[in-house]
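Tutorial, part two.
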Amino acid sequence: MGFFDIFKVKDINGELEKAKTIEGSVILDVRTVSEYKGGHIPKSINIPVDEISKVSVKYQDKATPFFVYCLSGARSAGAVRIMNQMGYENVVDMGGISRYYGEIEH
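Running the prediction step on this input gives:
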């Protein structure tokens, strides 16, 4: 990652399209439970960032493709960092749902 990459705006919509083409991919919402219940991307699962270690209970395969989002992108970046440290090999930070223009599920 280059210095100017930190200024790139993540494309959650484009990343979701990629996720749909990858068999077994997991769309992971790392916001709080109440934020998730207030509206989330369809077929996403919720594991709040402060409980991200629980991902290893549900997904033992470290090659599982994860597409991670939060509200603005800060928590998803942190979750991706932690998941990489846990040994997950295929984790994408999609950024924030605030830039998502698709259907919302409640």
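The longest strand covers residues 91-96. In part three we will examine how such features are distributed along the chain.
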